[in-house]
């Protein structure tokens, strides 16, 4: 405990010009006398600590040491805190919380203000206790190289039992995935977390396979040539903002109110296009138009049958 306090105190002194002994005592929940004993310990270890008395006094390091031994810049502290806060919206991590507390303790007012300029909330809307529990379980399995088992549902509701070597949790767009090696398919696969049920950590462990995550390998699965369709869609001008949010402004021809986009074709795409109702028209390809028309008619027939 004392060693951790000494390290944290050193970080605080490196990143702040001067700190009151009373402030340090309150931060570490110890007496002022203990703080001064810690200062003596740091001095004996070669850390050049200066203690000044008086109204403007306090504990500090000599300027040269601060410049030469700077651990993190103010911008780096801000970026690190934003990243940690974002991660904590999705899973429980006592170590991350401890790091965030330490960053806050060593940050000056300018850095603390900058920390609030950007907040990335990665959690879904509504109650997310089960979501956090799922993420936390997966994270634990990944850290310990533990295999996991779960039931996985396809778009059509078909279920299979999977045993997977989990490698990475991926958040792509609005959807969370697990990227891992599937023992059933004998290859890496991307699994939607929302379709995983009855998740368990297995007793067996695995050796991580060599995967260059910086190349975003899951993108290859999403953009398989045989899976992509080139869509041309017309839309009503008054939903331009919604269209830009949904498809991306770079795919919009504003003069013609047309969308030109290449996108993977699956059940999600059909439902996505139907969600725009009568506000869009599928121009190309014609077979996609036929699929949407057929499903729209099935919806109409469904409600007609309810009236009967």
Overview in brief:
The chain is of the alpha+beta class. The protein contains 12 helices and 11 strands. GO terms for molecular function: DNA binding; DNA-binding transcription factor activity.
List keywords for this structure.
308 residues; alpha+beta; Arc Repressor Mutant, subunit A; SH3 type barrels; 4 domains; 5-stranded antiparallel β-sheet; 4-stranded antiparallel β-sheet; 12 helices; 25% strand; elongated
List the helices and strands and how they pair.
Layout (H helix, E strand, L loop, with lengths): L1 H14 L5 H8 L3 H13 L4 E4 L5 E4 L1 H6 L5 H15 L5 H13 L2 H7 L13 H15 L2 E8 L5 E14 L2 E8 L4 E6 L3 E10 L12 H5 L5 E8 L4 H8 L4 E2 L4 E7 L2 H8 L5 E5 L1 H22 L1
Antiparallel strand pairs: 1-2, 3-4, 3-7, 4-5, 5-6, 8-10, 8-11, 9-10
Helix pairs in contact: 2-3, 5-6, 5-7
